[in-house]
Amino acid sequence: MDRDPTVCVMGEDVGHYGGSYKVTKDLANKYGDLRVLDTPIAENSFTGMGIGAAMTGLRPVVEGMNMGFLLLAFNQISNNCGMLHYTSGGQFKIPIVIRGPGGVGRQLGAEHSQRLESYFQSIPGIQMVACSTPYNAKGLMKAAIRSENPVILFEHVLLYNLKERIPDEEYVLNLEEAEMVRPGEHVTILTYSRMRYHVMQAAKTLVNKGYDPEVIDIRSLKPFDLHTIGNSVKKTHRVLIVEECMRTGGIGASLTAAITENFHDYLDAPIVCLSSQDVPTPYAGTLENWTVVQPAQIVTAVEQLCQ
Amino acid sequence: MVLGRAFEDMCAQMYYRGKMFGFVHLYNGQEAVSTGFIKLLKKEDSAVSTYRDHVHALSKGVPAREVMSELFGKTTGCCRGQGGSMHMFSKEHNLLGGFAFIGEGIPVATGAAFSSKYRREVLGEADCDHVTLAFFGDGTCNNGQFYECLNLAALWKLPIIFVVENNLWAIGMSHMRATSDPQIWKKGPAFGMPGVHVDGMDVLKVREVAKEAIERARRGEGPTLVECETYRFRGHSLADPDELRDPAEKAHYAARDPITALKKYMIENNLAKEAELKTIEKKIDEVVEDAVEFADESPQPPRSQLLDNVFADPKGFGIGPDGRYRCEDPKFTEGTAHV
Prior knowledge:
heterodimer, A: Rossmann fold, 2 domains, 11 helices, pyruvate (chain A), Transketolase_C (chain A)
């Protein structure tokens, strides 16, 4: 926002309240009430307003207080955000960033625990990235703001308290690249967002049992970085996908198809995809835990895959 | 107005001759609203329309050739043939669409108005007084986005005018059957903005009201809701048999044809002679003929255009298995790559 005065923020409680997860804390004090705009509760309209502002020269960052609320903005995200650059014959660009916290939290109930990446992935003309660490959150956010394309940035409700040393110097990450978290030889584990941590926990157990998993945080949910992913598949010949999306029509489903299409000859076993159950996330803690993939399941899956 | 009428009539002919396809919604009868409002705008002001957007595009300055080409689906169209009848856009003339779903253009218009205020107050362009016009119909006035944007615009005093083209019918749904309180202008004051009703068949009356509303917006006093009582002489689209509307109602409004009315006014007040008006009509016919010829002779979009313009930055198609960005693959520029 310092570097480019056309960058502005809009969303519910982003200004005076500092954001429901304090992502925009103190920005309104620094940049004023118009640049950090507290909107009324009208997701479809303020997202559309962000799109109109992007078409006329601004670079808005629109926040969904919880990603799930952006379901109300589906009309604008699908029809206008994704399509207008094309239907206008390339005349208008939409350099908007749509972001917000999503994913399964701690007993937030079904509606506040949604994973919208699976719903939005078919929309042509948008890019989707998921951040998972303080380092990549900053780098991806900067990249998304500077991109001329509309980008949806998925944050996770349970990852806001992570602490990490990040460089003082300016850095911008690549929106289309995946991140190699742990190189290995036996199996490729593809994951993103919070499940990265469940995977790394499982990795510790697996290493103790003598396995050598390669862990890749795909980061770019649309498009997939088929180079990083492909190189890994060519090396290990076994793929496990661990995601928080639902099974049906999730990112894992698309990833499975993409890998099968492109790297079928390199696979020694069918791709295994661990996703959340196709269940509205229950409130009860025990049920909620069984809805998402847990480290123990990841360990079992790798053991089976490597037999 | 005459250009609008002649153009739309030609569209009907071209459609039935198989030159134009899909859903085409003609503006015959409503010309006074488009002319009355848009002719008061500067080039930098923005206009947002709906699927009934051909005449808004023409009024805003998009050449007839480019609109006709777009309708024929040719690559010389204002949107390279990629938008079609319902998606007219022009960056040069600040026409921000052309939208198929009703109501979805209103937030976009609100965003354009927000940009104008932002330029003045944050970017420091003190003389930026661009206004935005949002055109939509009676059916849209029962839609959530309409009300949400009335609130946003009034709350932040955005330089926008909400122009309701109330032609009494949303395809086959009469406004009276769809709306609890059919007087749309009344909904403005409920949100803290003036609500004005005007005879949308009289271009001079529309212009009076438009002038006031636009100047209000330029002064930074905020939005206005203007309800124009108007009528479409043809069906909702060229596919609509138009069987539900009462012939007496149609006759009533046909007698109030805005073009005939203005002609009469000009002749009676010695502002123009019959012969001069006939010359204008002849010239317009030539413009429209030329537009059709241009569109006819223009090429269809080539295959290489298929993947263009999906992303402003084509890196958005991602990195392929070979490590290169997909947009660098020659098949991509040929339009045959599978993305």
